[in-house]
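dude i think i finally got it to work??
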Amino acid sequence: MRILIWHVHGSWTTSFVQGPHDYLLPVNDVRDADGLGRARTWTWPASVVELPVVELRRAEFDLVVLQRPHELDMVERWTGKKPGYDVPALYVEHNTPGGGVPRTQHPLYDQDRIPVIHVTHFNRLMWDCGAAPTFVIEHGIVDPGYQYTGEVNRAAVAVNDPVRRGRAVGTDLLPVLAAEAPLDVFGMRVDRLPEHLRLDESRLRTVDDLPQSLLHGELARRRVYLHTARWTSLGLSLLEAMHLGMPVVALATTEATRAVPPEAGVVSSDPEELAAAARHFLDNRELARATGHRAREAVLSRYSLARFISDWDSALERQHGLVGR
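look at this
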């Protein structure tokens, strides 16, 4: 099958393109959000092909996978085909709803031509999709392999855009957690932190953006992984940490309670309890190692790449050929 899809979320797309299909990714001269093309920091197979935007109208494809509301109009303008009518389409909803939760209506609310695929059961529960057909395909991860050493006696935190997203990713909780467990925050420079978060490096230090080839190894050197997100979808960094064999300590929000069983770490809505749990792992290296092994077993069982690809193949086959019915 030839699938048209935009490069929106690199980690998720890395898993998606491991399937047995050909994947067409629009690309433009500036490589902006609507023409990013292939990833530069992930390894993708040769079946992922860049297609210049100007060639889309002549391109042949069997199905389009949408991920953002404006792609509905963009597909029609750029290809001449209306998703759900002229070409089969699926819509992947990566995010938790915003606005008046739990009454937030999904952009594809009440239509019946394009199924909405949620990445977590929590997201499906919280979005109001009306009569739109909805399914859940849980995440799957390209296994980075067991890499845990825990040699650095600090807790790792990986957050995407922590200053702008603030409370959503739990940036405000860092001082509370750092008071008990020294933190290494991956993904940003210290000069981007607000002044009140610039703690002494013995308590909180930042690690600049690293290529994927180095990130996993550096995370796995830390003793424990701390997941601070309040209101995001299930962060792939949490699942990656579990794949690496790290014990995890996570806020009991959104899908975390499903993703992290009791034997894999500690899940709580009390930041002080999380801080104490992180401290306990820092002080007990063998406990951390044993818990990390169980975290890896749990994540391989529920979030394997093979299951993810199989679920997606079923969804694609089910939707393919429905135009005109």
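The CA atoms of residues 72 and 131 lie 18 Å apart.
im so relieved honestly
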